[in-house]
Write a structure and sequence with these properties.
The protein has one domain: Rhopdopsin 7-helix transmembrane proteins (Up-down Bundle). By secondary structure, it is mainly α. It contains 8 helices and no strands. It is elongated and about 65 Å long. Helix 2 packs antiparallel against helix 3, helix 3 packs antiparallel against helix 7 and helix 7 runs antiparallel to helix 8. The protein starts with 23 loop residues before the first helix and ends in an 11-residue tail after the last helix.
């Protein structure tokens, strides 16, 4: 028996929260893609033997995504499955916060690498000090809201309970990501400009014996062109996804957007899976840090 006494045999699908049967193919595909990305991240870690603080949150996030889409497969079998609904709403809401945690930890190393005077507005350590607590608060609010909503549905109470707390967590995540994006763009803009200045004096510096060809500064600058697009893409996609989830849950489980599977596949699953694969190239080890 599903929530509010309904089951796939006793109630029409329009009586379910989503008003549709989640796609078997799409959700199975997302499970496979997140499992593949987790495997690749694990292989990268085993080869490079560094940045566990970046890899572990990503692996945990991938596990969360897999669990969430497994919950949606349960809903494919029975759109009124209470367990399936609670598993997917909690896991898929919380998991992306783990990816942003990995990004925030990575930013400390990036700012330290390029953090010469006037390049980074913040001290490299301040990125973690500021944004990791923000991510934790967002994660806490989303988890708390999911717990309240789960408890209310298990007790067959108001199904809107806890949703406002989840939305507050998502809004806080959007705001903190926006500030982070502004600081990131400022940092990379300054690095880009200073990189060309560095190249202009490079020949003189090499002849003077002050730097060597292919040295750390030169290597880091070259690899920045690989790292920056991938790292930035991951952040942008997660940001778009968070805005979508705010819009989706803004009216609780009674809104119109929550009943549309197409936007969910594109703006939830699609955004996050591409972001996770982008982080294979937006890995701090690409910059040799």
């Amino acid at each position: 028996m599903g929530y509010y006494g309904c089951s796939r045999y006793s109630c029409p699908i329009e009586a379910s929260i989503y008003e549709y049967r989640p796609s078997l193919a799409a959700n199975a595909l997302f499970i496979g893609l997140f499992a593949l990305s987790a495997l690749i991240h694990l292989i990268q870690f085993s080869i490079w033997r560094s940045h566990a603080i970046f890899t572990v949150p990503i692996l945990l996030g991938c596990v969360g995504e897999i669990i969430g889409y497994a919950g949606r497969l349960m809903l494919n079998r029975d759109p009124f499955s209470l367990n399936g609904f609670l598993i997917q709403i909690c896991a898929l809401t919380i998991a992306p916060a783990l990816f942003t945690a990995a990004i925030y930890f990575c930013m400390t190393d990036i700012a330290r690498l390029f953090g010469c005077e006037g390049t980074s507005r913040l001290d490299p350590r301040q990125y973690a000090w500021i944004f990791i607590p923000c991510d934790f608060i967002s994660l806490l609010l989303q988890g708390l809201g999911g717990g309240i909503a789960s408890d209310a549905m298990l007790k067959r109470q108001n199904r809107l309970a806890g949703v406002d707390v989840m939305v507050a967590g998502l809004v806080f995540q959007v705001l903190s990501l926006f500030v982070f994006i502004v600081l990131l763009l400022e940092l990379f803009t300054r690095v880009y400009r200073r990189g060309y200045l560095w190249k202009e004096v490079n020949d003189y510096e090499i002849k003077a014996g002050r730097v060597s060809v292919g040295g750390p500064a030169c290597t880091a600058l070259g690899r920045l062109y690989i790292f920056f697009p991938a790292f930035s893409l991951a952040i942008l996609l997660i940001f778009i996804r968070c805005i979508y989830r705010v819009a989706e849950l803004l009216h609780g489980f009674n809104g119109k957007l929550i009943t549309k599977e197409g936007p969910f596949i594109a703006l939830e699953g699609g955004m996050i899976v591409v972001a996770v694969f982008a982080l294979h190239f937006g890995h701090p080890r690409v910059l040799n840090v």
